[in-house]
Design goal:
By secondary structure, the protein is of the alpha/beta class. Helix content is about 25%, strand content about 25%. A six-stranded mixed sheet has the order 1-2-3-4-5-6. A five-stranded mixed sheet has the order 7-8-9-12-13, with no helix packed on it. Strands 10-11 form a two-stranded antiparallel sheet. The chain is globular, with a radius of gyration of 16 Å.
Length: about 230
C-alpha cells in the first residue's frame, strides 16, 4: 500500500493506492483541484472518501469526481452538507476554541461547495476492498455528526478532523457535539494502530506505553487538551 500526502494549504488530502488503483481521502479547496488531478495522473481512483462535509475537505468533490471518473462517499449524517448546501454551526469550549469556532462558522457560511449527490454512503465497518484498499470506514462523530475516518489493515488510521496535529496532537478544536467528539478521541486512543494521519497537521507515529501495553496519549478533558 502506498500513501501519499497531498498538502493543500492548511489541509491534507491523502492518496492511497495499490497496483495503480486506489482512493482519495478528502479533496481540499478549489485552489488545489488541479494539483490533486496531477497527483492522481497514474492512479485509477475508484472512490473519494469524504471524512466530513466542511468546505476545506469536500469543495473539490464534484470536480474531482468528474475529472477522475470515480464515486464520492460521505456519511449519511453529512450528506445534506454536500448535496443540499446545508450549513451547520460548530461550537467550542474555552476562549481559544470559541474563537476558532467563530472563525470556522464564518467560513462555513460564506464558502461555497458545488453540490454533488454521493454515490456511496459511508458506514461504520464498511470494507474498502471493492475500491482496491484493504481497510474500512470508522465512525468518528463529533466534529460533525457524520465525521468518519479510514483504518487500514496495515495499521494506519486517517482521522479527518476528529483530531488535528497543528501545534500538538489534540482533540477537535471545534465540534457540533462535544460529547461525541470526546468519545471519538477515546475511540482513536483505544485503537491498536501504528500511525495517525490528520486532516490538518503532520502524521504521527503511535508510541506505546510499555506499562499499559497501549499508546501513552493522555485522555482529553476538552477540545484543546494535549495528547
Amino acid at each position: 500500500m502506498q500513501i501519499r500526502t497531498i498538502t493543500c494549504g492548511q489541509s491534507n488530502v491523502y492518496l492511497l493506492y495499490h497496483d495503480n488503483t486506489g482512493i482519495l481521502i478528502d479533496t481540499g479547496t478549489d485552489k488545489y483541484k488541479e494539483k490533486i488531478v496531477e497527483c492522481c495522473r497514474y492512479v485509477k481512483i475508484r472512490l473519494i472518501v469524504l471524512t466530513h462535509g466542511h468546505f476545506d475537505h469536500c469543495q473539490n468533490a464534484a470536480y474531482l469526481a468528474r475529472q477522475l471518473n470515480c464515486f464520492v462517499g460521505i456519511a449519511k449524517e453529512d450528506e445534506a452538507l454536500l448535496a443540499n448546501h446545508q450549513k451547520r454551526k460548530v461550537f467550542g469550549k474555552g476562549l481559544w476554541s470559541r474563537f476558532y469556532a467563530w472563525v470556522s462558522n464564518c467560513s462555513i457560511r460564506t464558502r461555497k461547495i458545488e453540490a454533488v449527490t454521493p454515490d456511496v454512503i459511508l458506514e461504520e465497518g464498511m470494507s474498502l476492498e471493492a475500491y482496491g484498499i484493504d481497510g474500512e470506514i470508522v465512525r468518528l462523530a463529533g466534529h460533525t455528526e457524520g465525521s468518519v475516518g479510514v483504518r487500514l489493515a496495515s495499521g494506519e488510521l486517517f482521522v479527518g478532523d476528529a483530531m488535528q496535529n497543528i501545534l500538538f496532537p489534540a482533540a477537535a478544536w471545534c465540534y457540533e457535539d462535544e460529547a461525541q467528539a470526546m468519545n471519538s478521541v477515546k475511540k482513536i486512543r483505544d485503537m491498536d494502530v501504528a500511525k495517525l494521519f490528520f486532516g490538518h497537521g503532520k502524521s504521527m507515529e503511535r508510541k506505546r506505553d510499555k506499562r499499559k501495553g497501549m499508546n501513552g496519549m493522555m485522555n482529553g478533558g476538552n477540545s484543546c487538551t494535549k495528547f
